[in-house]
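Shipment paperwork, digital attachment
Item: protein structure file
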Amino acid sequence: MQKPVLVIMAAGMGSRYGGLKQIDPVDADGHIIMDFSIYDAKRAGFEKVVFIIKKAIEKEFKESIGNRIAQYMDVEYVYQELGTLPEGFTVPEGREKPFGTGHAILSCKEVIKGPFAVINADDYYGVHAFREIYNYLTENEDDAKYCYAMVGYILSNTLTENGYVSRGICETDSEGFLTGITERTHIERHGDGVAFTEDDGRTWTEISEESIASMNLFGFTESMLKELEAGFLKFLEKGLQENPMKCEYFLPSVVGELIAADKATVKVLKSTDRWYGITYKKDKAAVVDAIWNLKNEGVYPEHLWKS
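Attachment content:
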């Protein structure tokens, strides 16, 4: 079996944050959230990382993190560009929004030849998550069905006090396998609890704080790339007709469809770690404090890559 590869989705420019949040330092040494994720991944056993970026940010990205990580990991770049569509499809005039996480992972189809884990660039996942996903990918292969995994987080541990978040809300069976996943694009603390809206806040639906949420930390075999490619054609045919400016090809939605079709099993590896991320500018202070505390607790050395 090929060693698992870490794939990091870093093509987004962070419209709500107001800048290139993926390369915003969170400690005095200039490290960013990705440094800590990659450090944890390396400790878990990963040796290669694939960065999904846009060509427009390549120079800044390499100067901020890519060149540094290349000293410790095998690094490869792929590019998620809005205009990279199958033959016969074109970007609707005026559209600037990317086509989503499924499209991002599809950008890797030429460079991944084995199992791989997927994470967001701007999320902190915790040490335990990388160990769990790496071990799963090295111990399991496709059989009668595709054999996938994901790390799930308690929803209340993934919220920000500064606005709304998008999360895949998961359902599991008695053996801990995913039975369904629903993408909620606007979840926030609402009143005394947590709720989501699908109509820009006109109505709200309460959701349990203990729900299991996907943070896009998945483990896949190479089979997922084939499924993403086939599904993208169907998505474009429908999405560009019904919602040409905003339709998105969500990775969790593809996972859910494969489960519903009985083509894949997805083991949910639960984490009780607190999520940290920078969705809004005000989130940065909390992340900086969290990293400082984790260093004090010995989870990370004072100077990350110099230890």
